[in-house]
């Protein structure tokens, strides 16, 4: 890091968040990449930075990396990834995020609207 501070994951996550709020995506990504230990908050933070800056493809690439790293997504992950999917018409990623819900009816107590539910299951919306 620039000032020589090599603190724990929480400090690095805070730096990612700070750089993201300043729209300094390169600096946020640099901090993320230099982290030896990444938790779910680290992944969600860097994906949120990419999504808020309009780098939808980067959001989905990070989502794939997170899944390959064995990190289990949560509701924050899903609410970050789904808009990126809609921007890029990335139905496959949307289905993958939706499948994490299990039965497809709700996610962590959050009810999924039937229109989204049908779309992700390839059922046409019922009028």
TrEMBL record:
Domain of life: Eukaryota
The name this protein goes by in its record: Uncharacterized protein
Organism in which the protein naturally occurs: Pistacia atlantica
């Amino acid at each position: 890091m620039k000032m020589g501070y090599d603190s724990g994951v929480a400090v690095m996550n805070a730096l990612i968040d700070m750089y993201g709020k300043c729209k300094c995506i390169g600096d946020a990504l640099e901090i993320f990449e230099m982290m030896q230990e990444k938790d779910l908050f680290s992944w969600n933070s860097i994906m949120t930075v990419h999504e808020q800056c309009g780098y939808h493809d980067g959001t989905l690439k990070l989502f794939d990396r997170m899944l390959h790293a064995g990190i289990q997504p949560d509701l924050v992950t899903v609410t970050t990834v789904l808009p990126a999917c809609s921007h890029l018409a990335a139905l496959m990623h949307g289905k993958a995020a939706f499948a994490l819900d299990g039965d497809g009816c709700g996610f962590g107590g959050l009810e999924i609207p039937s229109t989204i539910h049908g779309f992700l299951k390839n059922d046409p919306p019922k009028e």
